[in-house]
Amino acid sequence: MAVFTLNINGKQQKVDVDPSTPMLWVLRDELHLVGTKYGCGIAQCGACTIHVDGDAVRSCQLPVSSMGDYEITTIEGLSENADHPVQKAWLEHDVPQCGYCQAGQIMSAASLLKRSPNPSDEEIESTMNGNICRCGTYTRIKAAIKTAAGQ
Amino acid sequence: MSSSKVAMGRRSFIKSVSLAGGGMVIGFSWLASCKQKEAHVAVAQELPKEWFGMNGFLKIGDNGLVTIYSPNPEIGQNVKTSMPMLVAEELDIDWGDVIVEQAPLNTDLFTRQLAGGSQSIRQGWESLRTAGATAKHLLKQAAADAWQVPMSEITTENGTLSHAGTGASAGYGEMAAAAAQLEIPEEVPLKEKSDFKIIGTSRKNVDGTKIVTGQPLYGLDIQRDDMLIAMVVHPPAFGMQLKSLDASEAKNMPGIKDVLTVDTYSEDQKRSAFDTSAFTKLVVVVGESTWQVMQAKKAVKAEWELAPDIENEMNIFGRTMTVNHPAGLENTKTHTSQMVDMGPQRAEIVRKDGDPEKAFKNAAKVVERSYSCPFLAHNPMEPMNFFANVTADHAELVGPIQTPEFMEQSVAERLGLPLEKVDIMMTRMGGGFGRRLYGHFLVEAAVISQQMNAPVKLVYTREDDMTHGTYRPAYRATYKAALDENNELIGFHVIAGGIPESPLAANRFPAGAVDNYLAESWAIESNITTGAFRAPRSNFIAGAEQSFLDELAEIVGKDPIQFRLDLLQRSIDTPVGENNDYDPLRYKGVLELVRDKSGWNNQDASKNRGVSAYFCHNSYVAQVLDIEMEGDKPVVQDVYCAIDCGIVVNPDAASNLAEGGIVDGIGHAMYSAITFKDGKPEQQNFDRYRLIRHSEAPKRIQVDFVQNDIDPTGLGEPPFPPIMGALANAMYKATGKRYYDQPFNAPQPVIG
Description:
The complex is a heterodimer of chains A (151) and B (752).
Chain A: E1 2-8, E2 11-17, H1 23-30, E3 49-52, E4 55-58, E5 71-73, H2 85-92, H3 102-115, H4 121-128, H5 138-148
Parallel strand pairs in A: 1-5
Antiparallel strand pairs in A: 1-2, 3-4, 3-5
Chain B: E1 2-5, H1 10-22, E2 32-33, E3 51-55, E4 58-61, E5 66-70, H2 79-91, E6 98-102, H3 120-147, E7 154-157, E8 160-163, E9 168-171, H4 172-179, E10 187-190, H5 208-212, E11 228-233, E12 240-246, H6 248-251, E13 256-263, E14 271-272, E15 281-287, H7 290-299, E16 301-306, E17 310-316, E18 319-325, H8 332-341, E19 348-353, H9 356-362, E20 365-373, E21 385-391, E22 394-399, H10 404-415, E23 422-426, H11 440-452, E24 456-459, H12 462-466, E25 474-483, E26 489-499, E27 516-523, H13 538-556, H14 560-573, H15 584-597, E28 608-616, E29 619-630, E30 633-644, H16 651-671, E31 676-677, E32 680-681, E33 700-705, H17 722-735
C-alpha cells in the first residue's frame, strides 16, 4: 500500500492503495466516483474512459502509480451542470438506452471534439470504435457528436 | 369512454410506501425528475412538505408535484419513462410536475414486475392508466365535496381541478389531503384514445441527466459502509466441478477477508424456470476492495474434476419438467456435425397441413437450404452483480434483476426465510437482453452475505460473466420448398432444432399460406446452459426463414416483397389450417409501409437491398437494408424499418429501441459467437468475442410506425430478429453469395 495524491476534477485527493491498482478502481472503490464504469478490464470496451490532461484514456489499464500530477477528469467533472456541449447534445438526441456505456462514450467524444472541433464521419467512427454500446445507440451517438461539434 | 375495474386497495398501498422508503437507504436518491424544459438544465424541484398516497402507483405532494412509481425493471427498454407516462395521462398532470421513482418488488401491489417477453407496456396498459384515473377520480370527489357541486361537473387539466359554473379552481396539491381519505372507487372511466395528451408524444428518458453526468444508478455503483466485495471462481469448463481447493495464499493477500465455497441451491431445492444449472458450487473470494479481490482470485488454487450427469427437476411455469445435462466436455466441432446429422427420423412433427409427402413427390422442382447459428453470450455492458445484506431474520437485496418475483422465491427458499422477510430493490440495469432473467448471482450474493455475516456486493468480472453460460442456444434449420411447373409454391417443409431446444414456431408464417405444410422439431441435450436471449428462438428462425423466402422469390422470378405479399394474401383469402399465429393483414401492412418508405419500387437497380419481415412478441416488423461494397468489405448504409405495435406510447424512445434492435441484430448475425473446446468457452472477453462497433453500424436508420388505435404490444424484441434476414439478403446482392451460417463474417462452409 502507498499514499498517492491525485488531481481529480480540479481537486487534490489522497488515496492509500496498492500501487498497481488501476485508476478505474481507485475512482470507483476509494473515491466513490462511480460514473466511470467497469466493462471488460482489458481496454476493449471503453466504458472506463476518463481524461488525462484532456486525452481520453482507458482507466482500467492505468495504474495509480503512473498518475503523478496529471490532471484527471471523470464524467462527474466534465461540467458543472450537465452543460458540456456533448452532454447537452446527448440529452437533445435522447441517446441512452440502458445508459451504462454512455459516460465512456461522452468522455471519448468530448476529447475528440477538443482535438478536432469538426470531425469527419470517418474520424468520429475511428475514434469511437473503442467504445462498445451493447444497446446499439451508435447512430444517435454520431448524430449527437455532430450536434455538439463546433459548439 | 371505456371504464376499468380498480384492483388495488389502500391497505396494500401503505405497505408499498414503507417498502419504497427502504429503497432510499442505500445511500443515493432514486428520484428522477421529468422536468427537462431545457434539456440540459437539471431543475431542482422544491419538494413538498407532505405527500399524500392516492394508491400504490402514485402520491401527490401538497405543492402539486406527483411521484409515480415505475413498477417494472428497467433494462434500457425505457419503461421507467413510458410506464409512468400511462399513469400521468389518465391523471391529467403536466409531465413536468412528475417525479419518477423505481418501485421495489411488491407482489401485493403490482403484477408481473418482470422485464421479459416485450410485455411491460402491453400488460401494464390498463392497470397503469387505471391507477392514474383512480387518483383523478378521488381528487374530483374531494373537490366536489369541498365546493358542494356535482362531481360530474368538475373538469381536470394539467394538475388543476375546475368547476365552470362557480368558477372554483384548485391545484391537485390542495385537494390531495382530502382525496387521500376517500374510498377507492370500484370502477373508473378511462380516456378516449383521441383525448390522449401524453401518450403518443415523445418524452425524454427520465434518467437522462443522471446518465450523462455519471451519477450512481446501477447495481455495480452501490456503496455501503462496511460493505465487502465478493467474487466467484467457477469451473473453467462446462462439465467440470470443484474437486479441491487450496486458498492459503489467497487468504493471506492484502484486504482479503475469506475464501470460501458456496452452494447456490440447497440440496433438494426445487428450481424454477429462472434458476440455472451451471456451476452451482463456487469458490468465493471476499475482501475489502474490488482490485484486491481480483488479485486474490488469481492466487486461488482449485482442482477441477469431471462432473457427473446432472438431472434437475424444474418447475417451468407450473409444469414440472426434468432437465438433463449429460456428463462430458463438449466441442463446437462435434456440435456442428451432431446438428447436421439430426434428420427427420429423429424429429417430431409439430404441424402438418394437407399432404406434404405427395406435394414433394409431384414437385417439378424442390429447393432445399440449411441455416445455422452459434451460441451467443448476452454480454450486457454491466457485468452480473448484486448487493445483499442478510441478517438472521431478514434479507435485503439490491441490484440488477429482470425477474425479482421469481428470485424472491429462490432466495427465500435457499435462506430459509419467509417471503415477506426478503426485500428486493431493482436498480437501473446496464443492459439485460435476457441474461438477468437468470438470477443465480442474486442468490449467490445472499448466501455469501449470510455466510460472511456482512453486507456484500458480488461482482462478476467480464470473464466470469461471459463463461458462465445461459447462452443463446445454437440452432440449425433446413427448409424445403416444392414448386410446380408454373413455379407455384405447393409444398413447404421446415425441420429445425438446436442445442438444447428447437427454434421452431410452427404456426407462424408461412404456415397458413401453403396448402401442404410440414414442420418438425428436434433437440440435443447438453451441459452447456442456455437461456432466453432477446427474442428467443425468433432471433434465429426469422433470419433463416426470411433468407429462404428471398431465395425462393428469386427462383420463381418474383419481386421479394411481392412474393411475400402474395403469400400473405393467400393467408387472408383462404387460410390453410387452424391456429395460424399472426394477422396477415397487419403483416402485409408493415411490408407495404417499408416498401413505400424505402422507395423500393423506384429504386436504382444497382442498389444492394435486402428485405425481411417477421411477427413475434405480438408485433409486426418489416425492414429493408442497403449495402455498399468498399473494396471487398460490405458496409451497411441505410436501414428502413416499419413497425406495427399498435399505439406507440413514446415515439422517439420507441425509435431508439428499434434502432438498437437493428444494430444489435446486424452485429450478432455478422460478428458474434461463443465456441467450445473441451467444454471451455474460447471467447472470454471482448478481445475475442466480437460485438458490433461504431464504424460497423448502419449510416442511417429510419423507423416508421403504422398508425392505428390498437392497444400497444411489444417493442423490445420484435425489431431484432428480422434484420438478420434483411442483412443476409442484402449481402447476397452485394457479394453474389448467399449467407447461411452465422456469424456471416466467419468463413462460410462450402455447401455440398
